[in-house]
Specification:
By secondary structure, this protein is α+β, with helices and mostly antiparallel strands. The chain is built from 6 helices and 17 strands. The chain has helices spanning 13-19, 25-33, 127-134, 154-162, 199-206, 237-246; strands spanning 11-12, 37-39, 42-43, 50-51, 58-60, 63-64, 74-79, 108-110, 118-124, 142-149, 164-166, 169-171, 175-182, 185-192, 211-219, 222-223, 232-234. The model has no long low-confidence stretch (mean pLDDT 89).
């Protein structure tokens, strides 16, 4: 963090805010005077302050401004079953790198999905963002849709929400709901914030309902939506801002 956020050959802060679409130039000046703007973690009130929007971090009312989306690359990927959640594999299996062969950026995968699970996984060129999204401290929620064997009874929901004991420690679901039952297959939605290996599969098996199919549909504020298997989408705009805000960046 810089002690003095002023950059002599930079751009006036109110101009940066106006260009980012925060407010008009005059309204941006009022935001600064009211102490609602931070540069590199420091509240600034000086209208003559000049900044470097390419290097400095600016927040307005606690929300980070993404001033150059080309520098902050986050990709939503719909990982198919059979693809391993790594960028390379010594056994020659399909990897996440095979889904982004047209990109030259160095990308980090945010967590993993096991080879039999499909759905949303994030790739980013921001190592700090990746680290925080995976760190238990930030408790980033992940939403899954599972198809399980059998009709799920209310007692299973209660156990999952209250917490169960697995071989590597206790775990509880943040939320759980039954979506539908068709024959001997029930579709459920489960939200957890931990990233332990095969955690959802192990939780459901522990309460007596082995998973038949599993898809991750949401990671923090980013949704899978209609992204097709094996394809990617840039995370932009409000969703990108929300992702950074989730982990205090």
């Amino acid at each position: 963090m810089r002690n003095d956020p002023h950059v002599p050959d930079g751009i006036r802060l109110q101009k940066v805010l106006a260009q980012a679409g925060v407010a008009s130039r005059r309204a941006s000046e009022e935001l600064i005077e009211d102490g609602r703007v931070q540069v590199d973690g420091k509240v600034v009130r000086t209208l003559g302050l000049r900044v470097d929007p390419q290097r400095q971090v600016i927040h307005v009312d606690g929300e980070r401004l993404i001033l150059d989306e080309q520098r902050h690359i986050v990709l939503a990927v719909n990982k198919p079953v059979g693809v391993v959640s790594t960028m390379s594999d010594p056994d020659g299996r399909p990897t996440l790198a095979d889904l982004v062969v047209d990109r030259t950026d160095r990308l980090y995968h945010v967590g993993r999905l096991d080879i039999d699970t499909s759905g949303l996984i994030l790739l980013t060129n921001d190592g700090e963002l990746a680290n925080r999204l995976m760190h238990p401290k930030y408790e980033v929620p992940k939403t899954y849709i599972a198809r399980v064997h059998g009709e799920v009874k209310p007692g299973a929901r209660r156990r999952l929400l209250e917490g169960i004991e697995l071989e590597d420690g206790p775990i509880r679901a943040d939320s759980f709901r039954v979506m539908e039952t068709y024959g001997d297959i029930t579709t459920v939605e489960i939200v957890v914030h931990e990233g332990r290996n095969r955690i959802v599969r192990r939780m459901m098996e522990a309460v007596g309902y082995p998973v038949r199919e599993l898809v991750r549909t949401k990671f923090g504020p980013v949704k899978l939506e209609r992204l097709q298997p094996g394809t990617t989408r840039r995370v932009k705009g409000n969703a990108l801002v929300a992702l950074y805000s989730t982990v205090g960046l």
